[in-house]
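Hi R.,

Here's the chain you asked about this morning:
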Amino acid sequence: MSSTANGKNGTWRNWGGNVSARPAREVTPASVDELAAEVRRAAEDGLKVKAVGAGHSFTSIAATDGVLIRPQLLTGIRHIDRENMTVTVEAGTPLKRLNVALAREGLSLTNMGDIMEQTVSGATSTGTHGTGRDSASIAAQIRGLELVTADGSVLTCSEKENPEVFAAARIGLGALGLVTAITFAVEPVFLLTAREEPMPFDRVLSDFEELWAENEHFEFYWFPHTGSTNTKRNNRSAGPEKPVPQFQSFIEDEFLSNGVFQVANWVGRAVPATIPAIAQISSKALSARTYTDIPYKVFTSPRRVRFVEMEYAVPRAAVVETLRELKAMVDRSGLRVSFPVEVRTAPADDITLSTASGRDSAYIAVHMFPGTPYQRYFTSAERIFTAHEGRPHWGKIHTRDAEYFSRVYPRFGEFTALRERLDPDRLFQNDYLRRVLGA
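And here is the predicted structure, written out as tokens:
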């Protein structure tokens, strides 16, 4: 499945609608061998190659005027290894299908992001994450990778096999090769109890360390122009299962979070002066609730209102100060921000270019409705994030370049040296990679 409709003239667009490209050709290989042959053919024709999943990145990370590889035929579970508790899945499999298939087998990923439209390879290659005190991003749950490299050969890697490739390719930005299969660590399916409740912004900040330490998964949304947040705590539970009733789920997750929110954003875009009043109502629309369900039904929620987004990882110790600065900036700027700011955390991991590489991190995401002038807001927010040595999400809007990344990623040189070895002719290059990794 692809959420990126093609225009009549062969134009590809991303989900957010802010990136488009006109590839010379599009191919949909049905096997790893076919994909490898397409890579070799592109090299012979002097064309660059990029793979695109569901187009959920807001950056031009997947854009190309060369060969665009669509992996929708490379889907499904290849192998479940119950002894080692891993599952090997084809790269084009949507997370949604993986989660449902795993649940049917009585299995689950340990942690996941809040949407599941992306393909497994797109989500991991850009560093998609949820929130967790002890459990990290989706890529941190990878135990093995198969990728087609620039010479058309198939390379497998894990902690034991090609470990230096494994260290980097779990979040490889599409720069090291085309991922064709991923082996994830899984565990027996479990229950999570979610507790969602409003909480004043100042209280969340003063109690942040406690809220983080006492919950396996803590996150919150702050509504700009208000002193209100909506908090969410997810913790493992012995049960019993107690899902959100269907009608209540429709009202809260569809009608309020998507339907009314969409209309509110249309009104806000037409008449920006109404946004602070709408924000006050939005922040109070969702009341407290508690429910217990299997992980993907708790971690993920439908996102039907389109938006553009910037997200930065700052050191976890700096998150409260960063948020205070962000609120002060919004309050004095005259900006009108209709989307809540999302705050999550992740423990340090050992992936070369992971936003949490080598440091406990907190994520701050700012969003705007498409068609609204988001640049001033994002530029002001980015100035605050970078002052705290923030690392931007690879799939979300930012203006950073290789020079900046070489300062905030201690292992940046390790990644670029590996790329030099695996793709010396830059077959997988595009404008975005030229900017973020250097020529």
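One quick note: The longest strand covers residues 191-200.

Cheers,
M.
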